[in-house]
Design goal:
Largest sheet: 8 strands, parallel
Helix content: 40-55%
Distance between the termini: 24 Å
Strand order of the largest sheet: 1-9-8-6-5-4-3-2
Radius of gyration: 18 Å
Order of helices and strands: HEHEHEHEHEHEEHEHEHHEEHHHH
Shape: globular
Strand content: 5-15%
Number of strands: 11
Number of helices: 14
Length: 316
């Protein structure tokens, strides 16, 4: 079985399964649980002040002796302080997103850190390779949270990116099972990054009401929204309906920003306001039906992958 490839070698992990660094969901408990189970856990720094990130780094190091990483949105405030704490803590791996990888990759690499950048197109994957990153995550339109404007699905994105680059490729978007992992690997990925499935883990810091909303979501219950602002896939609720109505009436960027306000994602995903909060989740939510320990999710996905490899054709 495929247990040893460029991704497992690059990160020094057992399985090529990466838990996405999601805001308000992936703190040290989730990251360490995934890493202890043989995958790669990521702390989501996008919702953390620098001092909070430092606390999570310290606790994660105490909770696992396995490699873990940090997901770092490059356009967020206090980026220099985040990077200072990451380097001081000797974090081995950083996944960057939402910004130009040329800006910080050299400093991170000089500190001995493996750098991965998240992209939504082959063009940006090639630019990331040219910037010196060690691998890329190609994230399809199905993914939750902030998404690419191109709206390219994972099924089309992965083969296009594979043709464009030589460095290792990780697939993301719409992947929540071993069989979907197998499909991504057949298309040219060497690992998968999974977000929504880990939102519904016991260790995720997301609110219990949000987790419950995810496991009861049906097909069509998410939608890419706020395209004039920063495209984001949302679970439909009162806030989503307000945004959708405004977009349908031709709202300006300023009007959308006024509707969005401050801390909307925290209100929904972390504090549990299911009506007024921003609920970021992927299309794969319609296939998630339970909340499990993160380690069990890793082992289940890997077993499903092994089963799919042994019997690739569906049998009813």
């Amino acid at each position: 079985m495929l247990t040893d490839n460029r991704i497992t070698q690059l990160f020094q992990i057992e399985y090529p399964i990466i838990q996405a660094g999601m805001i308000w969901a992936s703190g040290w408990r989730l990251a360490s649980a995934v890493s202890n189970a043989g995958g790669l856990g990521l702390i989501g720094a996008g919702s953390m002040y620098p001092e909070i990130l430092k606390e999570h780094l310290d606790k994660c190091k105490a909770a696992t002796d396995k490699p873990f990483g940090v997901n770092l949105p490059l356009l967020y405030p206090d980026i220099d302080q985040h990077i200072k704490h990451i380097i001081e803590a000797k974090v081995p791996i950083v996944f960057t997103s939402a910004g130009n990888p040329k800006t910080w990759t050299p400093m991170l690499k000089d500190a001995g850190i493996t750098v991965v950048h998240v992209v939504s197109s082959a063009k940006f994957a090639l630019k990331s390779q040219d910037a010196g990153v060690d691998a890329v995550v190609a994230e399809g339109f199905e993914a939750g949270g902030h998404n690419g404007r191109e709206e390219t699905t994972t099924l089309c994105l992965i083969p296009n990116v594979r043709k464009a680059i030589d460095i290792p490729l990780i697939a993301a978007g719409g992947i929540g099972s071993g069989r979907s992992m197998m499909a991504a690997m057949v298309l040219g990925a060497e690992g998968v990054q999974i977000g929504s499935r880990f939102v519904c883990s016991e260790e995720a810091s997301s609110h219990a009401s949000f987790k419950q909303a995810v496991i009861t979501a049906q097909e069509g219950d998410t939608q890419l929204s706020l395209k004039k602002h920063t495209p984001v896939r949302l679970l439909k609720n009162k806030f989503y309906q307000e945004v959708s109505r405004a977009e349908g009436e031709g709202a300006t960027l300023e009007q959308l920003e006024q509707i969005l306000g401050r801390a909307r994602a925290k209100k929904g995903m972390f504090e549990g306001d299911m009506e007024e909060g921003e609920l970021e989740i992927g299309q794969v939510s319609s296939m998630i039906q339970d909340i499990m320990p993160a380690g069990k999710i890793v082992s289940q996905i890997w077993q499903e992958f092994r089963d799919a490899a042994a019997q690739p054709f569906f049998k009813p």
